[in-house]
Every structure is written in structure tokens, then in C-alpha cells.
Amino acid sequence: MNTTQNLCKTLLKNPSSIKSKSQVKQLHARILRTIPPSPHLHSTILSIYCNLNLLQDSLFIFNSLPSPQTTLAWKSMIRCYTFHGLFLDSLSFFTRMLASGKYPDHNVFPSVLKSCALMKNSRLGESVHGCIVRLGMDFDLYTCNALMNMYSKFWSLEEGGGSIREPGEIGKCSNSCKLEENVAGIDRNGNLDQMSNITSDKNSKKEKESYYLGSLRKVFEMMPERDVVSWNTVITGNAQNGMHEEALTMVREMGKADLRPDSFTLSSVLPIFAEYANLLNGKEIHGYAIRNGYDSDVFIASSLIDMYAKCTRVDDSCCVQNGMFDEGLKFFRQMLMIAKIKPNQVSFSSIMPACAHLTTLRLGKQLHGYIIRSRFDDNLFIASSLVDMYAKCGNIRTARWIFDRMEQHDMVSWTAMIMGYALHGHANEAISLFQQMEARGVKPNYVAFVAVLTACSHAGLADEARKYFTSMSQDYQIVPGIEHYAAMADLFGRVGRLKEAFEFISNMNIKPTGSVWSTLLSACRVHKNLELAEKVYQNLFTVDPENVGAHVLLSNVYSAAGRWKDAQKLRIAMRDKGLKKKPACSWIEIKNKVHAFVAGDESHPDYDRINDALKVLLEQMEREGYVPDTNEVLHDVDEHQKRYLLCSHSERLAITFGIISTAAGTAIRVTKNLRVCVDCHSATKFISKIVGREIVVRDNSRFHHFRDGRCSCGDFW
What we know:
Elements: H1 3-13, H2 21-34, H3 39-51, H4 55-64, H5 71-83, H6 87-99, H7 109-118, H8 122-134, H9 141-159, H10 174-188, H11 198-201, H12 205-222, H13 228-240, H14 244-256, H15 263-275, H16 279-291, H17 298-310, H18 314-317, H19 325-337, H20 345-358, H21 361-373, H22 380-392, H23 396-405, H24 411-423, H25 427-439, H26 446-459, H27 462-474, H28 482-494, H29 498-506, H30 514-526, H31 530-543, H32 548-560, H33 564-576, E1 585-590, E2 593-598, H34 607-624, H35 639-647, H36 650-661, E3 668-672, H37 678-691, E4 695-698, E5 703-707, E6 710-711
Parallel strand pairs: 3-4
Antiparallel strand pairs: 1-2, 1-3, 4-5, 5-6
Helix pairs in contact: 1-2, 3-4, 3-5, 4-5, 5-6, 5-7, 6-7, 6-10, 7-8, 7-9, 8-9, 9-12, 9-13, 13-14, 13-15, 15-16, 15-17, 16-17, 19-20, 20-21, 20-22, 21-22, 22-23, 22-24, 23-24, 24-25, 24-26, 25-26, 26-27, 26-28, 27-28, 28-29, 28-30, 29-30, 30-31, 30-32, 31-32, 32-33, 34-36, 34-37, ...
């Protein structure tokens, strides 16, 4: 025997050492040239092809084998078909194997039972169970584990409202018909025994659930030997189907059987504690995981984060869904840099809202680049998140570009784009897109109507908004919610129809909240309607006495009317109640660092440079015709002091810092937590013209794009 033959036989004795298609092809070629053919030899080669999941090559070799094929050949093909999701073919080969007189072993039934489970075919599953019993394989550990897994899946489908194929349903496709005939033929030959016809006779969903649960438990109880997989199957089945007490009981029984719960067990029971907010027991599992070295397991870590989050321990979970956006980004960076874990589609669609909320466009662009390199950009959920992120970070053009490139749109992507246009003041584009969505047969939902009403509000389209508000309930049977009423009230307030807004809020079908009344109170301040402002304040105070904004707004209305004593009384009342006004704050991102400013802020390291640049800008603005609107200063001070206070507003400090910190022509993007005042709006228009830059300011309700001395809002905001 030469060296080549020895090498081939050594490899055949250790087939797991063959790792690639090229290696098995080389081995196959050498065997054909050096070793006399035999059924066992070819079956072994076939099994290697099947282990590498090379279906076409495996099928070619199988068809070239002389009859009768060996048991190894049959079970290799059955396993390969199941791996590729070709369950009908897998079961067809199983019936052909039985018909040929070959009997399956414990390596065959797990693949066959998996095919029955994933086909949702209870009749075939029970038939295979009957075959297992007849062949005496019902005491084999691996076969019983596969049986329990199958019944657990049938049970889950019934519990979750899924569809189990009944005997009559299986004939709906030609391949299934052929398989049904094969099964029936084998049954007549006595090789495949149908179990009880309880499946076809069960008309009650509850009876079906009980039947599958009973089958699972019966298999478990009759097993002479159980391993961790056996226990995990029963525990997971109970947990996934809401039988939480039973699942926890099984975990305790598992410990009594001298078997240690593994990471799979823990990740199955942790969601139970998450659902019931059982922090104490959840922490016990956490401690067990640490003691046994499971805390580094990615699935355990994910389950722990979910458990702590749902138990409202955001200090432990630190995840985006709790609004902890900075912490969410921090964990994402740690996942990339420290844990070296490559993010998947879910990671990106989860983290993008943090960029949108924090308006971190630079980071959003970096993530977008990562998404493109990972080839996730065609994922529907990620694309929708990108549309939302770019729109909320002020880049509406890029948002629309991504939207147009999407092959299909879901409700999230439509709504994100419509709301993006609304926030940027592009009402006509938002309405046009809403109409396109309707024309394509997509039924608008609750959020879509919030978006289109917001668009109408920011453009003062009262009649158009009335039409959509009526259509929402009449055409789509959507009950208006507080957000829809707030958008309508905001619209009436913006266009100066304050009395109509008051009547609209008073006649709402649901109780108005403080935020709805605050919208009208703010409009009263803008339109200087003191009488109605006092009336609105009383209604607001009744539903939300701790609303700081209500006190501040009415105080500002009094100040604008020159009623300084009344304004002072309100300020004193706020102080006595421990209520503090939220300071106006603006922030800007420069070179991956966020710089925050408050009105009159002199603490920034570059304040002297900012102040000098502001003085130069003010001189240029005044030469262009800028006149400070000191009516916006609601303090009882002289005109000179009012001019100083205006120049030190937070958004001006941020804009000026952006100008002196970036190259000429770079767009300036500033975010403010409150509404932009009239004078700062006017000043920013002058600044954009003088420095020749686009300045994008996002306040608490919308975006303002300043360019060449004009604003995208058309001075209506």
C-alpha cells in the first residue's frame, strides 16, 4: 500500500479534518485514482460532502451509487436536505430509505423530526414518532430530545396563534401530495405507524395545546436518561409559552438531578424575571452566572441587560430604549472597541435613534459609513432609521436621497420622511408624500396623521389640517389622540385664531393635558392676548399645577404688557413652590466634541474670542440694517442692558463659536432646547448673509435653515 493510499485512509477515518470543498474534491480525486471502489467508501465520501453542506455535489454522488444505497448514504442526504431547509425532500428521502428496507438510527431521526416541526406538520411528526416507537428508538437520548423539541414547537404555534397543518391541508401543493402518498404507502407496509387521530379530531385550540404539552411531558418522563439539553427543552417550552412557574420548578428539579444549568438555561429563565420585574430573583441568576463564568456569554449578557431594563434599573442596563442615549452610545462604542463584537442589523437600527435624539450628525455619518461597508444599507429597518436620523439632524436632502433609494417602504419609513419634512417646514412636500403613500395603498396610521398635521401646523395650513383631522376618524377609523389635538391647537394658535383654538381644546373628546394648554398659552404670549392668557393659565393650572412653563409663559405675557408687579408675583410664587425655570441652552458639535452655552455664559474657554467676534458681527449687522428688537427682553432694565442681554443669548454664542472654529463655507448646526426668539431669528438671518454660510438651528419644535439672509420658515414659526 503506497503513501497516498495510507493518507487517504487516514483522512477517511477522520472526516472532520476535511474543512473545505477544495479539500474534499482533492481527496475524492485521489481515492478514485488509488483505491478500489466500494459502497462503503463512496458512502463515506458522500458523508463528507454532506457534512460540508455541499448539496448539489452530494446529490450527484448519491445518484451515482449502486443500489441498494447504504444507511450512511441515506442519513447523510437527509441531514443535508434538512440543513438547507428542503424539508419535503428530507422527508421524502426518509420514506424512500424505509421503503428500501434500511432502518434509521439515532443520527437520522433528529433531522427528520426537525423537518416535521419546521413544516408545522403535526400528522407527519406523529407518524415519525410512531416509527420511532416501533423501531425501539424511543429510549435513545438524542431522538427523545428531538421529539420534545418538535412537540414544543407545535405547542408554541398553537399558543401563539400559529398554523399547524392538519391532514386535509397537506394536499395543497403537489410536492406535499407526493410525500403524503409515500407516507401512506409505507404505513400500509407496516413500517410507519400512525399514532392516534387525535390531531384531526381536535377542534378546540385548548385541546391541541394540552395534547402537545402532554406529548412533550410524556416523552420526557419516559426517558431513561436525560441530559442538559433534555431539561432545557422542557424549561424553554414552558417559558416561551407563558408557563413561568413550571419553568422555574423545572430549573430547581434540574439542580436536584445533579445537572448544572448552562447558559442556555439561564437565558431562558431571565426573560421571566424581566416580564414580572422580579429584580431580586434576576440578580440571583446574575450572581450564579458570575460564579460559574457565564457572565461573559453574549446571550446571557443580552438577557441581563433586558432584565435590568424592564425592571426599570436603567443605571444597570444603560440602554437606548430607556432614553439614556449617551449611555447607549457609550455601550455601542465599548462593544466595538473593547469587546470587538461586530454589530448586526439590530444593533444599528437600535443605536440610530440615539444619534437622531442627540443630533450628532457627525457620528450618524460615521455609522452610515459602517453600515454601507457592512452591506446593511439595503435593510428596511436600518434604512428607515437612517432617514429618521438625517431628518432629525438637519440634513433633509440626504434623508430624502436614502428614502428614494429604498426598494420598498414600510409605514416607519413613510412616517419618518413625512415628519422630517414637517419639522423642516416643507409642508407641501410632506403633504405630497402623504398623498403618495395613500395612492400606493398604504393605510396611514396614528403617527402618520401626527406627522401630516404637524406639517400643516408649521406652515399655517388650517383648512388642510381640518380636512386631515376629519379624514382620520371618518375614512380610517383612527380615534384622535392627544398629539393630534395638540397639533391642531398649535396650528390655530400660530395663525392667530386664538378663540377658535380655545373652543377646540375645550370641546376635545379626551381631557386636555397641560402640554395642550401650554401650546395655546404660548400663542397668547406671541399674539399678546393677555385676557385669554389668564383664562388659559387657569385651565392649565387645574390639570398640571406643577407645570413650570405655565408660570414662566404667563409671567412673560405680563412683562410684555408692562405689568411688572404681576410678573414678579408669579416669579415669587414659583420660588416659594421650589419651581425653577429651565434655562435656555444651545449646543454645537465641533470636532467630535459638543460645546454647550447658556444665556450670558462667560465660562467657555474661548469666551473672549467669541465676544470679540460677536462685536465685529454686530457692527456688520447694523450696517446691513439690523435693529435689535428689545421687546423680546422681558426684564425691567434700560435699553442698553436689553441690547446686551439680546447679544448674549445662547444660540448666538453657539453660532459665533461655530463660525470662528470651522473653515469658511462650513455649515453651522446648532440645537436649542427652547423656541428661538424673534430677535435672534432676525439676527441669524443677517449673520448667514454676512458670513456666507448655511446656519441650521433646531429649536424645541422645528428646524430653521438660514441662508443668504432668509430662513426656510418664511418667518412663520
